[in-house]
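Tutorial sheet, problem 5. The two components below are modelled jointly, 807 residues in total.
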Amino acid sequence: MALTDIWFLLIAVLWTGYFVLEGFDFGVGMLLPVVGRTDNDRRVAINTIGPVWDGNEVWLIVAGGATFAAFPEWYASLFSGFYLALLLILLALILRGVAFEFRGKIDSERWRRNWDRAIVFGSLVPALLWGVAFANIVRGVPLDAQHAYTGTLLTLLNPYALLGGLATVALFGLHGAVFLALKTEGPVRERAVDVARRGGLLALVVGGAFLVWTELAHGAGWTVGAVAVAAAALAGGLWLVNRRDGWAFALTAVAIVAVTVTLFGSLYPDVLPSTIDPAYSLTTTNAASTPYTLTIMTWVAAVFTPIVLAYQGWTFWVFRRRIRPSDIPASSGVPATAR
Amino acid sequence: MNLDLARWQFAVTTLYHFLFVPLTIGLSALVAGMQTVWVRRGDERYLRMTKFWGKLFLINFAMGVVTGIVQEFQFGMNWSEYSRFVGDIFGAPLAIEGLLAFFLESTFLGLWIFGWDKLPQKVHLACIWLVSIGTMLSAYFILAANSWMQHPVGYVVNEATGRAELTDFGAVLTNSTAVGAFLHTIAACFVTGGVFVLAISAWHLAKERHVDVMRPSIRIGLVVTLIAALGTVVTGDLQARLMTEQQPMKMAAAEALYETSAPASFSLFTIGTLDGSQELFSIRVPGVLSFMATGTFDGEVEGINDLQAAAERAHGPGDYRPMIPVTYWTFRLMIGFGLLAGLVAAAGLWFTRRRARGPVPRWFYRAALLTLVTPFAANSVGWIFTEMGRQPWLVFEVLRTADGVSPEVGTASVLTSLIVFTLLYGVLAVIDGLLMVRYAAEVPPPAPAAEGEDETAGVPSALATTYY
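Model answer (structure tokens):
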């Protein structure tokens, strides 16, 4: 296996990890007003991801850094090309991150309500835009001979990409609902189960439509297997909601893995196809760093990725208990002005 | 136009990010130290200190994290030509920083915040130390990346592709510039953490509040600040000599030294123009620039005019001088702010010594609170000097800044993002400031006498678990 292929695979792994992990964070965030009627409900929901959301987000940072290191041309063309979409994602992630940390710091209804809005916005927008972005990556964008993006923001808002965005919103929403069902007790869990059952069908339909379109227009043949796995895992996960919470969550995670596999499988060996002329496409070979850099990075990844997986996994073990409404203490925030 | 906007955006987002980073690095180690004292001695005051400074640390950490996400992406967004040119070299430390440092700090910080009553005491303590180690690892890799831009090593430029290619990764990681920058930055981070602790402690002590917690806190802050400030002097001296050797133009620009001189004097400040034509008034210390640059008081320091002529011979016609007033003043301000912090710490150690005859004078507490701005100011102007002093180069003597900007991104896009980031960061600064002030006032009260020993390793119940 060529080094460039190993790195294509590793970048796919990083994005997969990001979508599986931050997928449920996004789901919890966007469902906050739905599963949380009272402040206690909302705090139960937020605290299910409290200890882990930041570590989950690092998968994105590392995916970005690894793309820069292994495929600089891909990194340069993609991020300068998707400029405004990425700006919106960054804005959302910034607001969302401080919202988790700041929300409980001041004991004021208005303060919390505003940060709740930031959490919903900050979860919904990236969930939508990552889908739009990846659909465009698979579909191809207008790249010129210098691999520079020549389209506008509107170029990215084509029907296929918008369907991709809706698919990721529905998938992450379902994934988050199933996660909440696994991690909570009480009213939040009841509503999460309800959302998972109803929203799950939507995820199956929208996600299914997007995958079928992907397979027909861009599929690699073998990717039809991944599409089938995604559909089966989604259906199975849905059936297990409220029956076997752990397995239901594992299956929605498998579905997200299968979706990412479908996308990257359809993309390969391109990394960013050009819709102007296939000769202008960025591929795993013409976008890659030198073998020397890739070799060093392979060693670093081979040694440290298992360590990261081990301690992140341990974190989930430490915080394995369900959160009950009675676990949440009275507000730990201080009044807005000094006593 | 795009070039100027992209540079402003990088300056705004990166300087803003770097307001939070040094405090994160310095304070995480201080909080870890306080918790260690609590765990080893069981002194409950140190638990309250850990909680109090830990909360301020977390508010700051959140800002550092979210503003850091932008850093990982903006090279590709605004500097695509740079990214294409250097990705083979520059991307590796960035990716390794994420894999080794960011995962470590974010994961173990989550465990630290939420794990007070879920982890054995010593494991919980190890978590905050791992966070601290993570922040320093992160500093090393990102400084190695930046140092490669100041002093490129371990690479060749491939004539066929027109890109820089890595030939020796060990050389990039052991770049003398990186070692110097790391030591200097970490010392500055500890000045920042130390001053933060001493200033807020002084604020409480001036009002005679929470003396049992703030008295040991201010001593920690003072000792750390003084040692770290001395550290910045020693490491800064090392850096100045490296700079003279590797980027002589930056050294000359730091002093606005136009003519090559031996010995060269150091001007404390200058009134008048800095364009080399005439100088109305300046206070100069003979020989000091020579000492900073070469290690001897009569060493020769090259001047801007000679260096400009040499650069034109090597790289063709052009202006190879950075903006002299910027480099001249930022260099002085950095040193001045840093020394000020060190002086306040030295004075504070004298006033708060165990055998002090009288009470600590009031004015000292007020001065200590004002000192809070000095490390942040010094850190900011220090980076402005480092980056502006390298201009017009993006990678020193290899790639010009003008050649690194994204050609495919329209002016409207760059302007939009500059405005969005500036507004967003402005609003967040107000909120962050408000929270910091509010939480700086909230010192945990002593725990009521424990009735019977608890399973959770002596954690007073009021302090047991943190929930969002």
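Marking note: The beta strands of chain A are 270-272, 282-283. Full credit if you identified this.
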